[in-house]
Write a structure and sequence with these properties.
mainly beta, 6-stranded parallel β-sheet, single chain, 1 helix, elongated
Length: about 350
């Protein structure tokens, strides 16, 4: 197995540090307890001697999509921001010691904001789509949260892409094809680096809408980003007719997907863990007044779980769970309930291959 050149020598990370280089070669690398070493998406980290991990290696992915913004002169709620994706990295070390964590989990989406409780005609904007992941496996594969599309009062968006996360068959295709690419890397004697598939971030939630009579509609939530597990569908809201507190509330942002970690070592002696979980969806915005809950937004979908591949003498603790859909409060009285609920992200992929097979 290839462990790099050791060009950077022996380094101890004793304070929170962020690397910008995507390829680093150490003789020995130590990350102290309570310390986070952040590396960029698409990193290759090689240690020719010992990686001693007692802190955290955080792999940073693409930023989440911004939520639909409402002008301060209007009174509906703004959408929550989508969660950033977990990053992807190949880490190979001759020996891995310690009890720290490699974290490539997606971030949670943020909550939609409530309306201001003032009756006023206000315009609506669409949530901004989450950043797209690399399209390296299939030209049709999309890993970002689908853009949340807004309608005016009484006109719910009907475009399928505005509601659905990534189709399961594309995720399955991605997982199978990526396994082929990884096997090619393994059987090449580790001489050809594998392509690192980037995970998708969550989409921003949509702002609420209203007319000048206090009729409103909550904004749709953002779809969760996808990785090796599909991102959850976004929630959507019905329209409500009535008083000033039925200006539309904002939708929650979608959770970011978990990234991809490939860990290779012929001598794991410690008890490190790897997390590549999807982030949770943001809660729907809502406002309660006069005993009625009016015009809540849609919740954000959970981010899909990422991928963990371990090629080593033993397996490590690993998780690649999908994120949980955001919460919402159903409308009551003159308010409206939720038309379509958000969904959790799907489970990602965890795989172990004994390095002894390639000696």
């Amino acid at each position: 197995m290839y462990y790099g050149t050791g060009a950077l020598g022996s380094v101890t990370i004793g304070s929170n540090t962020t690397l910008t280089a995507r390829e680093s070669h150490y003789t020995n690398l130590t990350v102290n307890a309570g310390i986070t070493l952040t590396i960029p998406d698409g990193s290759f980290l090689f240690v020719s001697g010992t990686l001693t991990l007692n802190g955290t290696i955080k792999v940073q992915g693409a930023a989440g999509g911004a939520g639909g913004y409402i002008n301060p002169n209007t009174y509906a709620g703004s959408g929550g921001n989508g969660g950033a994706a977990g990053g992807s990295a190949l880490i190979q070390a001759a020996t891995v010691a310690g009890s720290g964590t490699i974290n490539a989990s997606g971030d949670n989406g943020s909550a939609g904001s409530p309306n201001t409780g003032v009756q006023q005609n206000s315009s609506s904007t669409s949530g901004v789509s989450g950043a797209s992941g690399s399209l390296v496996v299939s030209p049709t594969f999309k890993s970002n949260g689908q853009q949340a599309v807004s309608g005016q009062y009484g006109a719910l968006p009907t475009v399928p892409a505005a509601y659905y996360g990534i189709a399961d068959d594309l995720i399955s295709y991605n997982s199978v094809q990526y396994s082929v690419l990884l096997n090619d890397y393994l059987f090449s004697g580790f001489s050809r680096f594998p392509v690192l598939v980037s995970a998708g971030s969550g989409s921003g939630g949509v702002s609420g809408t209203s007319d000048n009579s206090g009729n409103g509609q909550g904004g749709a939530g953002g779809a969760g980003g996808s990785s090796f597990g599909a991102g959850g569908k976004q929630g959507r809201a019905n329209a409500a007719a009535g008083y000033y507190y039925y200006e539309g509330c904002g939708g929650g942002g979608g959770g970011g997907a978990g990234g991809l970690i490939i860990l290779g070592s012929e001598n794991i002696t410690g008890s490190i863990s790897i997390n590549a979980n999807g982030g949770n969806g943001g809660a729907a915005g809502n406002r309660t007044a006069d005993g009625n809950t009016g015009c809540p937004g849609g919740a954000g979908g959970g981010g899909g779980g990422g991928g963990v591949y371990v090629i080593a003498n033993k397996m490590v603790s690993a998780t690649a769970n999908g994120g949980t859909a955001g919460t919402f409060v159903a409308g009551s009285g003159y308010g409206a309930g939720l038309a379509l609920p958000a969904e959790d992200g799907k489970q990602g992929l965890i795989s172990f291959v004994s390095v002894g097979l390639f000696k």
